[in-house]
Design goal:
Blueprint: E1 20-26, H1 33-44, E2 48-56, H2 58-68, E3 72-77, H3 82-97, E4 103-107, H4 114-120, E5 124-126, H5 132-141, H6 152-160, H7 164-176, H8 179-187, E6 196-202, H9 208-221, E7 226-233, E8 240-242, E9 257-264, H10 275-284, E10 289-293, E11 310-315, H11 322-327, H12 330-333, E12 336-339, H13 347-358, E13 363-366, H14 375-384
Parallel strand pairs: 1-2, 1-3, 2-8, 3-4, 4-5, 6-10, 6-11, 7-9, 7-10, 11-12, 12-13
Cofactor: adenosylcob(III)alamin
Organism: Candidatus Yanofskybacteria bacterium CG10_big_fil_rev_8_21_14_0_10_36_16
GO molecular function, one term: hydrolase activity
């Protein structure tokens, strides 16, 4: 088993220190019940879990690992190709980062293949009979990797070249409150006037992440590079499940797209206190479009507008009547209001109510995040704000 430096932790927004774990289903494996049970158990044990979803290739697993700069990679597979999935993932990570990442695995894996997996660099394989407590305790005791230190100037040069690992590592240091990281951030260039920072907010479950997926698709067709900051809420356990990027799975291997998940432990304008620094890093990487998604927002997140150039409030039919609109809050600060799920029967009524309430002072768009209907109009509205 590989030995790593113990106690390299991270913190998002000044809250409890946590370990960040990526959990994915590798290969042609569509069974997710088991991994969702493990995801919840790890969250309840105080870990931050990036849920990468089903059918993940080694290339996708490696891309998520690097962008999120996770502490531990967990791969579950029932596909029969476990040797290939693990070996290729380890190979890609080594090539791209010159680093060995702590890796654990599970699923349907023959016991007689475990020695070969450990030899190639897998730290632990769990069989279906494993108690979840055993997994939790192993991760808690795992010695995590010590990243190489480099000069401030070297880090800045790598980020200006668009190097993903350098940017992701700096984001983690920012989350930890590292003083050297703060100095590096202060030396990065300010955002270009041409960079468009788009805020996507609204109540939970309205389809913000799925809408962002379609926006990325549209911007990439325009040959624009895209950075995404996706904020999820913390659980009462102080752990978190960060699942927004699963809606953006289409773009996981696109080198022109950088997706970073963050946890809202301390409310800062609907996101976290580290968000402005992460925006600046993405800007230094020369991302043309930077999209910031809040955790499921309520009426209190009106300060979010200060962080972005264009604020999009996403709603769906049936979330309230005209009295709710009168209460105001974050929706009042939006440049654009989107009525998502436009295929629902009540969407037209919601659309008309919003137009009447705001008396044509705001752009109101109807979209369907699944089909892409209305996305072109929304992109045009974003560009003219």
């Amino acid at each position: 088993m590989h030995q790593f430096k113990k106690g390299i932790w991270r913190v998002s927004g000044g809250g409890k220190l946590t370990t960040k774990i990526l959990l994915v289903k590798g290969g042609l494996d569509g069974h997710d019940r088991g991994i969702q049970i493990v995801t919840k158990a790890l969250r309840d044990s105080g870990f931050d879990v990036i849920y990468g979803g089903l059918y993940c290739s080694p290339e996708e697993i490696a891309a998520i690992t690097i962008q999120e700069n996770v502490d531990v990679v967990g791969i579950s597979t029932h596909s029969g190709n476990h040797l290939g999935i693990f070996s290729e993932t380890i190979k890609i990570l080594k090539e791209k980062t010159n680093t060995h990442w702590p890796i654990i695995g599970g699923g349907i894996i023959p016991a007689n293949d475990i020695p070969a997996l450990e030899k190639m660099g897998v730290d632990k394989i769990y069989l279906p009979s494993t108690n979840i407590t055993e997994i939790v305790e192993f991760i808690k005791g795992l010695k995590l990797m010590k990243r190489k230190k480099e000069s401030q100037q070297k880090t800045i040069e790598r980020i200006l070249k668009g190097e993903v690992f350098a940017a992701a590592s700096l984001m983690s240091l920012v989350e930890q409150g590292d003083n050297n990281a703060k100095k590096i951030i202060s030396k990065l260039p300010d955002l270009s006037p041409q960079t468009i920072v788009v805020g996507i907010t609204g109540f939970g479950g309205v389809g913000k992440s799925t809408l962002i997926n379609k926006l990325i698709e549209h911007f990439r067709k325009d040959r624009k590079t895209v950075g995404v900051i996706a904020c999820d809420p913390v659980s009462v356990s102080r752990g978190a499940v960060m699942g927004d990027r699963i809606r953006m799975k289409d773009h996981a291997q696109d080198e022109g797209v950088f997706i970073r998940s963050i946890v809202q432990r301390q409310n800062f304008k609907g996101v976290t206190p580290t968000t402005p620094s992460i925006i600046k890093i993405l800007g230094a990487m020369k991302k043309d479009i930077i999209i910031v998604e809040t955790a499921g927002a309520g009426q209190e997140n009106s300060g979010f507008k200060d962080l972005v150039k264009v604020l999009v409030w996403v709603s769906v039919p049936g979330l309230g009547d005209k009295i709710q609109m009168l209460k105001g809050g974050g929706i009042e600060t939006a440049n654009i209001i989107v009525v998502n799920q436009s295929d629902k029967a009540a969407s037209y009524l919601t659309f008309q109510d919003l137009k009447e309430h705001f008396e044509n002072t705001k752009k109101i768009c109807k979209t369907n995040s699944l089909t892409g209907e209305g996305i072109s109009e929304l992109v045009k509205a974003i560009k003219v704000v």
